[in-house]
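User: Some background: our group keeps a shared notebook of sequences we're curious about, and every so often someone picks one and asks for a predicted structure to add to the entry. Today it's my turn. The entry only has the sequence so far, pasted here. Could you supply the structure so I can complete it?
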Amino acid sequence: MSPITPDTTRPARCSAIVGLQWGDEGKGKAVDLLAAEHDAVARYNGGANAGHSIQVGGERYALHLIPSGILYKGKAAVIGNGVVVDPQKMIEEVDGLAKRGVDTSGLLVSSRAHVVMPYHKVEDALREEMLKRSGAARKASDAAATVTEIGTTRRGIGPAYADKVQRGTAIRMADLQRPAALEEKIGLALDVKGPMLKAMGAPSEELDAKRILEQSLAAGQRLGPMITDTTQTLHDIIKGGGRILFEGANGTLLDVDHGTYPFVTSSSTGSAGIGPGSGVPLTAVGRITGVMKAYSTRVGAGPMPTELFDATGERIRQRGREFGTTTGRPRRVGWLDLVAVKYTVMINGVTGLAITLLDVLSGFDTLRVCTGYRINGEVTDRFPPDAVDLAAVEPVYQDAPGFSAEIGGCRALSDLPREARAYLDLITQVVGVKIDLVSVGPGREQTMMG
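Assistant: Of course. Here's the predicted structure to add to the notebook entry:
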């Protein structure tokens, strides 16, 4: 029997956007830009813990659940089965967009997407507080203790994904339109979780089955026209010759399998999550754009080798407006870590880079770039995704000349100062992937194609 060879005559019609750091890389802007050449934009992971900011025509939009492509009229915006959906947040977001004149008629949500219920958010917050207290107590008695809070957004994402895997108490979007089944499932969930949550200090009113049922049924009625089999919808688009852009939420270093565990989110944030999170195989995706900031940031707990605690870090934070879209909390800031980026490029199969916030680095005499880690006296360019191992590394820096000119008005790579172009060349050299897009400001027009 002759070996089977791939059919190279059929071009892959789909593209993907993934974050290459710890989130907040500017994926929303990249999606917004690339959505113009696609027929649909689909989210495949995460929940309302994501925060994608887009600026169009001087107006800023902050999206959490709804795909960033919603700002393009006439394109399908799909929330896939791999997303955990907070119905109340989704309704708030739809209403907020409608008030600003955004057409949301193309929004669809998978009937198989799991629901973030009110008790999930209660559980998330109580667990985080418990870990925080426990970690503080351990550190007080043992300076070497590493147990602490994970740093979640307390939006119920982790507990919702946990219920999905445990199955027995899980609720999916389709259940919001099945009153009898929904009542039974809520009752079962509270039978299982109620005693534990009350023991952890949950207020009784937060665990009122009748109140939760009424709220959930009302949400199901409101969102009903949007709930459908999105896997079939996406395949229909592809079969009809359409193109889909898959939008990843969070960053690859927060991936539950490949991130800096345990300080990660609860879903597959990289390109590998597209298949299980949407029902479309990764073989259908021909272009994977990895989005990265020109420096590093992180929110929440966990190791960050290049973190800055000085005036330089604060200057970058203020210039980059590094405060969470979802939480508003200040982000941790550091020099660009190319060891981490090289790792995430590798595991995502990235075909091109999108560099954001390069303008933030204007005004520095010297720019530092981490190109290796020193571990036990030896230098390596390999990234250890385990949090304990990563906390032990020492960054090895390569210094590059800074640039003084403000570059927000540049519209072509040739317009950039020589030093800025050299900085981009260094990224390409170390990472080994070409640059497709460079952003020098929040506006759509402040973007240069490589």
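Suggested note for the entry: Residues 1-11 have pLDDT under 50 and may be disordered. The chain is about 30% helix and 20% strand.
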